[in-house]
Specification:
14 strands; Rossmann fold; six-stranded parallel sheet; single chain; alpha/beta; about 425 residues; globular; four-stranded mixed sheet; 17 helices; about 35% helix; Type Iii Antifreeze Protein Isoform Hplc 12
């Protein structure tokens, strides 16, 4: 990619890449940890609801007092975005409505936007990306997070002339996890509540990783960025090790893959709870097929693992480094004017789905909460049933009962139709016929 060479040239010219970070949580802190060893990248300002906490995070990840003193800390994200000394905005709050507002402000200000906030991307990313293109700036998924890494693998395969059969990631999954709540989450992780509290772990956030919501959100982002289509009944989470990817995720293998050109998440656990050999819990993969007999012969000659036919293979990456890799997105936007993945259509959506029987009058508590989990489905189906996006399922009252396992719809809730995030989502639905 030559990003380091381009950065070195920019440094030699006396011009730095200037970043404004919104949200100094775990992802943001990991990004900040790399700044002292990346000459040419300067974090000019950090916006956080608790500026002192952000300042402490910088010290914790190794910033010296000189660097901290040279950085602005503020709770005014809008003011930071508008500042003249920002080239790239990194949105790392994880709050979907706030993410949309910050991205829109960055685009209006002529700033590139790197959207760590995949919740916001799945809620309305296609329209944000369209607005960014019209404004001549980059809207990008965040490298280091799994959606951008999967998009890169899909791009690699297609650029080589391979047909992509499936792509996705690994996770720890059992069907019972869909009903998990912040009160039940820690035993599933093998932790006590005291251990989790000592580690500063947010139970609702970690529950969203476990109950299937985060997997659905990330695969919707991949679908919208790559053109791969979600399975009609949601993710199957087949137990699968890296040595089995090509054989299990191949055309016609019902129960593991619904169709060619699909996103899917593989589980690191068998359904009886035992560990999958060579699991891909922290990694990403792409499954692709040789286009002809000669290519299949080359697979055999060069020791490429394949399925029984010799034509289907898989490339995987066993881990991702999250914020430690975010510079790739920042530099790609600033130096090349290119995203590390961005939505090109509305193909996947994540619909709030009842974890238990919900009663009229209850207040939904959002992603990772006790009421709903986010189920991936094709965008066309979400629109057909009027599905409530998981990104708008927080602090919303139910006006009628919803049975356990059923999707929550717009008709089931009382929503503020004047809310900016709601209106932008509806505008996105109108602008992008589901495909």
């Amino acid at each position: 990619m030559n990003l380091h060479r381009l950065l070195a040239a920019r440094v030699a010219a006396g011009k730095h890449v200037r970043v404004g970070l919104i949200g100094a949580g775990k992802f943001g802190s990991m990004f900040l940890a790399q700044i002292p060893t990346t000459p040419g990248v300067v974090v000019a300002a950090i916006a956080d609801l608790a500026p002192d906490r952000a300042r402490a995070a910088c010290a914790r990840v190794g910033w010296d007092e000189t660097r901290i003193a040279a950085t602005r800390f503020t709770d005014d994200a809008a003011g930071m975005i508008a500042a003249d000394d920002i080239d790239v905005v990194v949105e790392a709050t994880g709050h979907a409505p706030a993410g949309i507002a910050h991205a829109r402000a960055a685009i209006a200000a002529g700033k590139h936007i790197v959207m760590v906030n995949v919740e916001a991307d799945v809620l309305a990313g296609p329209l944000l990306a369209k607005h960014a293109a019209q404004a001549g700036v980059v809207y990008s998924l965040a490298y280091g997070d799994q959606p951008a890494l999967i998009a890169e693998q899909v791009d690699w395969a297609r650029s080589c002339g391979f047909d992509v059969i499936a792509a996705g990631k690994g996770t720890k999954y059992l069907p019972e996890y869909h009903a998990s709540t912040p009160e039940t989450v820690w035993p599933y992780y093998g932790l006590t509540e005291a251990q989790a509290r000592a580690g500063g772990m947010n139970p609702q956030m970690f529950n969203s990783f476990l109950d299937g919501t985060k997997s659905g959100i990330e695969m919707a982002a991949v679908a919208n960025a790559t053109g791969l289509i979600p399975p009609p009944d949601g993710l199957a989470f087949p137990p699968c090790g890296t040595h089995e990817l090509a054989e299990m995720l191949r055309p016609g293998n019902q129960g593991a893959l619904h169709h060619r050109g699909q996103v899917e998440v593989v589980s690191s656990l068998h359904r009886d709870g035992t560990q999958v050999a060579n699991d891909l819990r922290w990694g990403v993969y792409v499954v692709f097929e040789a286009p002809n007999d000669y290519t299949a012969t080359c697979f055999a000659e060069y020791g490429v693992p394949t399925d029984a036919s010799g034509r289907v293979s898989a490339l995987f990456r066993p881990f991702h480094l999250i914020g430690l890799e975010l510079n790739v997105s920042v530099l790609s936007a600033a130096l090349r004017g290119e995203p590390t993945g961005a939505p090109t259509g509305f193909r996947g959506d994540v619909v709030a789905t009842a974890k238990r029987a919900l009663l009229a009058g209850e207040i939904l508590d959002g992603e990772g909460g006790a009421c709903v989990w986010g189920k991936l489905m094709p965008a066309a189906r979400s629109l057909a049933i009027g599905g409530l996006p998981i990104g708008l399922a927080n602090r919303v009252p139910l006006i009628r009962d919803v049975p356990a396992g059923s999707p929550v719809t717009w008709a089931d809730v009382r929503i503020d139709q004047a809310d900016a995030a709601y209106r932008f989502r509806r505008e996105m639905e109108a602008a992008f016929p589901a495909g």
